[in-house]
Amino acid sequence: MESLQDLFERLQKTAARRTAPISEPEASEQRTHRPRLLPDRHQVGDFFIADITDSVLKGDRHSMEHPMFGLSKKPDRTVRHYEHNGIHVTVKPGADGVATIWDKDVLLYCISKLVAALNEGRQDVSRVVRLTAYDLLVTTNRTTGGRSYEELRAAFERLRGTSIVTDITTNGIRQRRGFGLIDNWEIVEKAANGRMLAVEITLNQWLYNAIVAREVLTLNRNYFRLSGGLERRLYELARKHCGQQPKWVVSLALLHKKSGSMGPLKRFREMVKKIVVSDLLPDYRAKYDGDADQVIFYTKDAKKLAESIIHKSE
């Protein structure tokens, strides 16, 4: 039986662990919320945006596979290094902090517009993308008040300031190079109150090469309804690695590495379990296997699952 002295010492150790200082990136990840879906603020029937619909939302498969964005909305100036299977990625934040996975919405919108233009056979496609700020906000399921426009401006700055150094091949070109997530951005039209109306964004050559080579994947529009950074990242990884397969099995340690999470593995495991229980990921269902300490992502497409079972039994 535990003595009072032993109990006192154990409580002291527990309190010390709980009050031990942690880094800001880790702390912000630990302030996690309960996984939930954001409301569908702009249902498809309520608006029309040329080129962009839920069926043509595109993302480049390279940034879906490898961690290039922060998963917290808190300012983070940590330099990140990632290496896996001969691929190297270094992410260096700018003065305003690292670009977040919510900032990536801007790139998803630009990629989708360019892919739509390429599919139409247009000859004026280039790295310079002109967009309407309102359309971008609506498409990415954001509010359209003044604060959202200010947040959009801040996202442009973080994308421009964040530097990536990588040797990932795009369009058959593999070279060790550094670049900003976007080269630059410019407001080309303002409203009378000074709010941005139209913006031009110049994408980096690395991403543009991937778009031209159609190294992109279609995403579910409900991606923009995922409230947490880790939920968004897990969906990206499931979409990239499942593809047309019925499932993807990955060790928790490798999932932690590929996610770009800055928190400890133990905390990451707890967060993944909550996401598994919530079952909110579009297109995929996840299961945590505690015995093997791994996660299994399954497609929610019943037909694909049935075909897989039949194929195995043959």
What would you say this structure looks like, in words?
- This protein is of the alpha+beta class and 314 residues long.
- The protein has helices at residues 4-19, 24-30, 61-65, 104-119, 133-139, 146-161, 205-212, 229-242, 252-259, 265-278, 302-313, and strands at residues 58-60, 80-84, 87-92, 128-132, 163-166, 177-180, 182-190, 196-203, 216-218, 247-251, 284-289, 294-299.
- Strands 2-3-5-6 form a four-stranded antiparallel beta sheet. Strands 4-8-7 form a three-stranded antiparallel beta sheet.
- β2 and β3 (87-92) form a beta hairpin.
- The longest helix has 16 residues, at 4-19.
- Mean pLDDT is 87; it is low at 14-23, 26-30 and 45-51.
List the strand order in the largest sheet: 2-3-5-6
Q: Detail the poorly predicted runs.
A: 14-23, 26-30, 45-51
Number of domains: 2
Question: Pairing-aware structural class of the strands and helices?
Answer: alpha+beta
Summarize the helix and strand pattern as letters.
HHEHEEHEHHEEEEHEHEHHEEH
Query: Radius of gyration, Cα only, in angstroms?
Result: 21 Å
| Mean pLDDT score | 87
Helix percent reads 25-40%
Oligomeric state as shown = single chain
Helix count, DSSP H or I runs of 4 or more residues: 11
Task: Determine the N-to-C terminus distance.
Answer: 58 Å
Strand content: 15-25%
Q: What gross morphology would you assign? A: globular
| Biggest sheet layout | 4 strands, antiparallel
Strand tally, please? 12
